[in-house]
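User: Can you predict the 3D structure for this chain?
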Amino acid sequence: MAHKVHQPFLLSLLLVGFFTLMSHIAYAEDTQLPPGPSAPPARKNPAPSNDPKKKKEKTKSTWQRFVDGVGDAVPTPVRKTWRRTKRNWERTVAVVEAMRKLVGEDKEEKRKRLAREKKQAKLDAWQSEDQAIEKRIREKLELTIHQQSCMGGSATACLAWAKARPKIVTPWRQLRDIWSRRGHWDKLYPVCGILRQRQDQEIEDHLCFAKSLAALKLQKEATQIYAELLQKYPKHPSLLLDAGNHALQQQDFALAIERCKQLTQLLPEETDAWYCLAQTQETIRITDAQRTKDRLAALQAKKNPPKPTKDPKQAVPSGAPPKAAKPPQRPKAPLKPLPPIPTADTVLNTYHTACKLGHPKACNDVLRLRPSGASGVLWWSTTVTRISARNVSSTTLQQSCRLMGLSSACRQLALDALQQAQRNERLQRWGQAAWLYEQATQLAPKDTTIWKKAGDFFYQQKLWQRACDALERSLALQPNQPALWYKLGTCRTFTAQSTLQGSQDAYKQACAHGIYKACKKIKSP
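Assistant: Here is the predicted structure, written as structure tokens:
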């Protein structure tokens, strides 16, 4: 029985060995080279391609690699059967896919597909949220940089800030102050026109618009705006000063004298008010002298009219056409009457008052208008001693401070900036004063007095965060200041209240969107 079982097995082994041997012999005969010259050198394999499609096409399945490896050892009927089986399998797969499309997916496939889509949706949501957070952080950083640069005096940063936040008025106000300091009136005209039309307009916006109109030689419009503002703000210092200078340029001397005198009574220590008054008085004297000279010349011409002289060279020939008649000249506008003419001593005393208060140009005018003799020597000596204290130019001080780092030069620049800030504060130019206080603290960061005055200014203007920073710096340098400790406590109270109000607004927004925990944290008023 065992002999009958082993006999078919041995026969099959012999057949497989025979087919394998014959396949190797046929392969050797096919690959044998004919006699002749030596075979050419084998070519190097080309560089592998990086195209993933080509790689995918060249990659063969395990079954195909097995079929290629066996080669001719497998009988032809068997290989045909394999090919037929492969074609039948591909057709079956195509039929199954078509049926699946017609019938639809079953519950298990649907569950897997939904799970896969949910996982991908979570991944996409995380990625989109991360991108949104990154975008917000980048925008906030750029906005912070623009804001700090704008506060430091960069007009380009103010424009970028205003473009990023078009509804905020702060960058436009900073841009107004920057261009006002630089004297760019052609750029100020549209900006101040926009600021005047806002609901939160200020008097500085109107003054900026009026000054830009006057600089662009639109005098009538500027005069009308000044008149309207004076009816609304009759005792505003900066308005009185600008209106007085404008009236002086328009040669309305009575109005200029009235406004400058009103400003000197309102602010007796304001140098620009005394200088404006002195300029008006001197211009009145010069205008009166010029008018007197013109009247004397007209009377002299009336008494001694010029005799007509006949020149033969200028005789008109008979055939020449007549000369064109000159167009009628417009009648000159009547001259405005002058106010009472001040004396030379009055003008000199007004200039001297401005010089004593620290106006640099007034001292030069005192030296120019000084009387002769012993009294002139006295005027000379007192004025020169005042000028000698300011013989160092601001350019030299800035170079010494910024390039060489001299603390004395920086302190002198800080004191000058502090003096200008206090003058702008008296004139109620709050934006310019705030910028000058910041400059003074940057030039002298270890000066307790400058930090204290800056903190007091910000405290009065209710700029609580900036006031807290300035007061903290002053108290860190000198803790024994009880009044500043009280103001610091007030500043922190207001900043805490604003922060709490912001948190309450955030909780309200969260509660409105359906977050129950936020509704619990909203405190009742």
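Residues 24-47 have pLDDT under 50 and may be disordered. The first helix runs from residue 2 to 31.
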